[in-house]
Amino acid sequence: VQLAAQDAALLDRRERVLGAPYRLFYQRPVHFVRGEGVFLYDADGNDYLDAYNNVPVVGHSNPVVRARVSEQLGILNTHTRYLTDGVVSYAERLIDRFGGAVEQAVFVCSGSEAVDLALRMARHVTRRRGIIATSHAYHGTTDAAAAISPSLGPNNEVPADIALVAAPDLGASDPQTEEREFAARVDHAIADLRARGVEPAALIIDSIMSSDGLHGTVPVLGAAAQVIRRHGGLYIADEVQPGFGRTGDWWGFERHELAPDLVVIGKPMGNGVPIAAVLGRASVFDSFGGDVRYFNTFGGNPVSIAAADAVLDEIDDRGLRDNAATVGADLRAALSSLAAEDDGISSVRGAGLFLALELQDDGVPNASRATAVVNHMRDARVLISASGPAENVLKIRPPLVFGSEHLPRLADALRAALAASPGGDPVSGSPVTS
Ligand code: PMP
């Protein structure tokens, strides 16, 4: 694997100071110097079509976000213990997008912090400890969030107050059966917790089950939400991946026809400026906030709020939620026609502009082919990744400014990469997910 001399030197310096926990994408890491819209650029000015990054939801280096953030930086930036207008107006505007499902918001700086706070709230409100999550989930980096993120790796020990359930397997049977079977697994997990003397506080699910291999084409989570409620626990919708219009709906849980007790949002919320939130009903917030004082130094500061407000403006003004639905449908059709030509593609799934191709070889997950395809596409300057328990699910999740004019380049690169790696090259590196 050949890198330019200066990139090899940078890689060397990076490994020395950033150390082992950091991973880079690709066998031949790529060095970007700027981004614009759906493109990232290297030092030679080559454009890379970004079909992977969901944080720059309104486009890389979005000029509206940039203007609002720089203006606010020159006016006021402080914490939420003074009266300021921006955070209140934004909270009202955000809560409005939930159609009555939530009434209040707490702002934090990352999805992990939001997950951590949602777990704390659920445990405090129910006076219980048990949390149920899916068996290859990713929910974040804090101690509590990492404990329900088995996709981090086998050394991530599962504490006694956590129970894991396999995500719905949409390839195996019909959605109604999957919904029922998934709810039964949650019921079983509650019994398991109780057998250990732990009462269930919450069920938390990424509404599109991204790290579990991307599900979410059809509703499958409603019955499980009813099960946790029947047993006195809360349902937490992790919307960090599907939120803000990606699926064609504002929130991923909408397709599952359930009303969550708590919602966690993040990633695209500030288009890269750190901001995330927990939302829920006033009764839940009252029960937590009546006992506990919560303060987050950077959470919801005026600069982060300016970014988040500009993101909502851009999604609205440019019709990006509809764009996710319409361009997503065209992309899905293109992926389905690739699947019709290729026996190794066992399923096309997802919603809106979050789609996946699952690769199998005679019914066996084909991770080496997924890795080869991702690396071939990198060489063709189109960015995607792979995920799922077996790392065999190609993950396509572009900024929402991805238009139909960008589709042919993505589809052509994917077709060529699939053709160039029919059985999968035996390769050492794997594209890092999450
Ligand atoms: N939940 C989900 C579903 C996520 O995908 C992520 C990030 N990949 C997180 C939570 C954590 O968010 P952050 O990286 O902002 O802490």
From TrEMBL:
Signal peptide from the UniProt entry: none
Keywords: Aminotransferase, Pyridoxal phosphate, Transferase
Pfam families xref list: Aminotran_3
PROSITE patterns in UniProt: AA_TRANSFER_CLASS_3
Annotated transmembrane regions: none
GO molecular function annotations of the record: pyridoxal phosphate binding; transaminase activity
InterPro entries: Aminotrans_3, Aminotrans_3_PPA_site, PyrdxlP-dep_Trfase, PyrdxlP-dep_Trfase_major, PyrdxlP-dep_Trfase_small
Family, as annotated: Belongs to the class-III pyridoxal-phosphate-dependent aminotransferase family.
PANTHER family in the record: ALANINE--GLYOXYLATE AMINOTRANSFERASE 2-LIKE, PTHR45688
Name of the featured protein: 4-aminobutyrate aminotransferase-like enzyme
Lineage: Bacteria, Bacillati, Actinomycetota, Actinomycetes, Micrococcales
